[in-house]
Task: inverse folding
């Protein structure tokens, strides 16, 4: 690993009110997998945008194979062999998977006509590298978020880049998809491709990366061989303090039953029944496509109205849309923040207030109260921003997720449905969110936590239901729960 293929020297970049990068220098060697680690807002995405020609830095240089380079556009960087999978996915929804993978370079027949057959075949082979087998003619907008993420990865891999940059590529993938990705990344790294890998999941970094660079507040804090560091040191470098307890001690308050779900049926769900009590965290787990995500949506009135019965506080309720749901004291934190959770061009304050207005059906909140509320959530969840009037779209990915969460916590719901509540959130902020959930439960809130993070379920949920192919295949108490039990039920294995 002697040959330095990419070098960023002394990069600084500011946005209004934020020094996103300050004198950042990073080297990347041939065949190296370099992890970039740091809290939400530390500057990771900004750095890779500089490295790939999206932003021109205020100061500093980028060298490729030792030669000074100035990219004037992402296309420039791409042509120089740098492929990026961005954190916020950037596909063309109206185009097919094949068109998205091939970008503008469509294969043509000898007559100069686009060779659709060949194009689809190429797309198929690009996907098969990740063991994906989707129809290349499917429109991107009809794909699940995990599929979109994989297609973007397949696209980056397809172009045989010399440098591959992945910004939180596994945030929507399941364990099997992550396995396939890692196998492939390890293979191409051995063939000499260099990789910059961003993730908040430390175990991924230990498994995959050779070296890790830690950013904090836009500065490089450390650059260490992965073999020479450990969880604790990385967290300390990242957050600036020790986090000994990521998870609070759960003291479930098994209060009165607040929610009863009886024989829920939709196209994807088959006879789902469960109860949730006040003060309880009820976990739901399933592999992608198992229908587990549909449960949250069905309860909140998104999409098809389910058959079956839903009772809140013992009373049968009809939830036809999200307005009904909100009126019944339900809140839903979606997994896809960019499309479901936020108005990106609005301020933090106005995003936090959207749900508030819907619940209280009034416009009588003083500007002062709004500001106080917004400021208190910014503090409570340590949202990194120059101020509460900042546009949400300019926040880092993890900080946007915190805004979605605060918006729903603020309405003080009776039942909170969380879909991947800590996706893309750094360890320090995760600890903060778990502590808040624990406290709200102690005050009587009922939480339904739908997550693909098994450690999160094991540590936080009081009971966990597992779903496979639309049916319940397991229900575990805190004493019974384990990773093995959850996985066995999730794949529908007969267990007991
Ligand atoms: N286009 C922009 N306009 C204004 N501020 C921005 C813009 N992009 C990023 N920032 C700010 O720069 C800082 C660094 O953001 P960046 O997205 O690089 O963080 P990150 O390390 O990728 O965080 P995360 O883990 O949450 O994705 C943040 O304070 C963010 O609000
Ligand atoms: Mg980011």
Result:
């Amino acid at each position: 690993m002697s040959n330095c293929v990419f070098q960023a020297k002394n990069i600084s970049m500011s946005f209004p009110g934020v020094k996103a990068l300050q004198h950042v220098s990073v080297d990347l060697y041939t065949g190296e997998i370099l992890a970039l680690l740091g809290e939400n807002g530390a500057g990771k995405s900004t750095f890779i945008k500089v490295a790939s020609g999206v932003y021109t830095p205020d100061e500093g240089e980028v060298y490729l194979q030792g030669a000074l380079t100035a990219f004037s556009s992402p296309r420039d960087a791409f042509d120089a062999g740098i492929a990026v999978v961005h954190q916020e996915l950037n596909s063309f929804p109206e185009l097919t998977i094949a068109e998205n993978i091939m970008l503008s370079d469509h294969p043509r027949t000898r007559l100069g006509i686009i060779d659709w057959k060949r194009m689809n075949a190429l797309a198929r082979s690009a996907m098969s590298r990740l063991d994906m087998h989707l129809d290349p003619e499917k429109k991107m907008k009809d794909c699940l978020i995990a599929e979109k993420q994989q297609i973007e990865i397949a696209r980056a891999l397809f172009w045989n880049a010399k440098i591959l940059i992945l910004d939180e590529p596994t945030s929507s993938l399941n364990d099997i998809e992550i396995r396939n990705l890692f196998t492939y990344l390890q293979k191409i790294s051995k063939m000499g491709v260099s990789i910059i890998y961003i993730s908040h999941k430390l175990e991924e970094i230990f498994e995959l990366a050779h070296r890790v660079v830690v950013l904090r507040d836009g500065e490089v804090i450390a650059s260490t061989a992965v073999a020479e560091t450990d969880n604790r040191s990385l967290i300390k470098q990242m957050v600036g303090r020790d986090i000994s307890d990521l998870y609070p001690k759960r003291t479930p308050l098994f209060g009165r039953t607040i929610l009863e779900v009886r024989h829920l049926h939709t196209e994807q769900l088959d006879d789902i029944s469960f109860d949730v009590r006040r003060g309880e965290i009820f976990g739901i787990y399933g592999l992608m496509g198992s229908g587990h995500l549909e449960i949250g949506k069905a309860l909140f009135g998104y999409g098809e109205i389910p058959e079956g019965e839903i009772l809140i506080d013992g009373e049968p309720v009809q939830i036809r849309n999200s307005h009904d749901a909100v009126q019944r004291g339900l809140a839903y934190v979606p997994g896809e923040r960019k499309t479901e959770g936020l108005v990106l061009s609005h301020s933090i304050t106005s995003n936090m207030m959207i749900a508030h207005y819907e619940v209280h059906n009034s416009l009588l909140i003083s500007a002062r109260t709004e500001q106080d509320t917004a400021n208190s959530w910014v503090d409570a969840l340590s949202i990194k921003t120059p101020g509460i009037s900042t546009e949400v779209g300019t926040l880092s990915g993890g900080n946007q997720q915190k805004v979605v969460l605060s918006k729903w916590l603020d309405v003080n719901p009776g039942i909170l449905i969380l879909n991947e509540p800590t996706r893309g959130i750094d360890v320090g902020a995760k600890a903060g969110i778990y502590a808040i959930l624990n406290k709200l439960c102690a005050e009587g809130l009922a939480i339904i936590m739908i997550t693909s993070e098994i450690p999160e379920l094991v540590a936080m949920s009081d009971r966990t239901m597992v779903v496979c192919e639309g049916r319940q295949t397991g229900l575990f108490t805190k004493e019974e729960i384990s990773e093995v039990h959850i996985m066995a039920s999730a794949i529908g294995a007969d267990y007991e």
The CA atoms of residues 68 and 258 lie 63 Å apart. DSSP finds 17 helices and 20 strands in the chain.
